[in-house]
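From the shared-data thread, chain only:
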Amino acid sequence: MMIRLSILEESGIPDSNEQEEVVSSIQGKQNSPFLDLNKHPPVDETAPVDDSYPASGYGGDGGYGGDGGYGGHVFIMEDDLMPGDDIHIEPVQQGPRRRQRPPVDTLQGHPYLEFPDGTDAARHCQKLRRMHVGSHASIDWDAMEEIAETPRVRRFIPIDSPWHRLFDLAHTPTYRELLVEFISSFTFHPPGEPVPIPYPGAPPPPEVSFRLAGVQRSMTLAEFAVRCGLYMQEEIETEIYTAGLVVVEKPTLVGFWQVIAGADHWEHDKSKGRVSFVSDPLYRYLHHLLATSISARGYSREWCTTTDLFFLYCLLYRRPCALAHGLAQYFASGHHRQERGFLYGGAYVTVIARSFGLVPHQDPHLRTPAIMPTRMGMQSLWGMRVIKRFPVGPRFKNREGGVWREEDLPEHFEDVHPPADPADVVPVEDPPEDLDGAAAPQPPPPAGAPQFPRHAIRGGAPGAALHPDVRARLDRLDDLVGWLVRAEQDRREREGLPPIPLPPVRAPHQQQQPQQQQHQPQQQHQDSDSDLDA
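Structure, as tokens:
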């Protein structure tokens, strides 16, 4: 058997450490029996043997060699080699991966995509029809059975549950025209939240509204949950739907991230963390499914956002999750994505269309072919580098290369708050205390003065930060007023006019004005400002 090893000479592969490990493992060990074709050590039948990766590269959606990935070259690690393998090292020129350009607008003038000029739907459609449409990824249960992970996956995703339907319905074709029309016209007003009304007494807008196949439709969120296939009608009145979580506090989510990956690997300023730091391979697999379904996006699936953490937290801790609410939020924000991004959710739009009796594959107005989904099978698992072949068969592997042993999630964990910047916190001293320990009485603050907390003030103390600016501005205004008065007096003196009667100088005791005189009518302030500007 001959193994062709392609070593990239330019930057661009996802992990440079892996490239260095490949080079050092192959080129730096000249005495290795695996590299000497004349020396073949006896084969240890009890040692775990790792298959070489598929010839198509690291497969899977977004993998190295899969859809939108780095294609065609196989990276062989040292423990992938077998005695007798012939190795040929071939340098390959490859630059960094570039994102695809937006596709050509082939949907212009489509009857389903004609919206009234000047409407939000028309503006959204003009952008969305030039975007790429992504392919959904669903669970490959045969692959889970092959790596003996089906029982554990079923604990998180029971049969005939909303989570099971979410991932199962992802294996549905996507029709580009229907998806663009749906997202362009989709509006969502969550139940219980205040919504603006055009005039008093007007009926409130529907919770969910959209246009599909040229027909405008509106419904409640509960009906939307049933039509998109996530919930059964009899579940709407149960806690499966009514008790679903909509949001989880961010400190709780970051605390959950600390459990599965470590808080040190969370970027608080960007509110995201790299999925490669997640220790459990199954959690990484489930995150990839979420990132192509209910929180879908394009090439950024190597990052775990707070939205991903919310759904992953509900999934792993088996908390009721408002999946229909999350899917509606995704559709409502779809037009905010960049034109070079990807549109997802077409599988669920197809399910909704079928619930109204539409048959998309028989619709003569659909010009583009259906975008078929994929299953995250063995090729994707090899591409994610989370499995390895052992004597018992392929299994999830840990970071040391051994068989992954499941670790139970703790029932409770501590919340993690973002660290405060010490330079941005100005401590405020506590009030002095008497000898008996009682705090000395403080004078009451002046009426109308802002109150600040006594423990810490972020951004600097109020007086210390604003005093130089206020003082400089007051001095400048005083100079301008004096200059204007002197200029006017000189002009009147040249023209033989009497001098301007100046206001009398107030005594110091008259400068303390009552509180009610400190706030003059707004018109007087405007008149004074106009005089100064003149």
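The radius of gyration is 34 Å.
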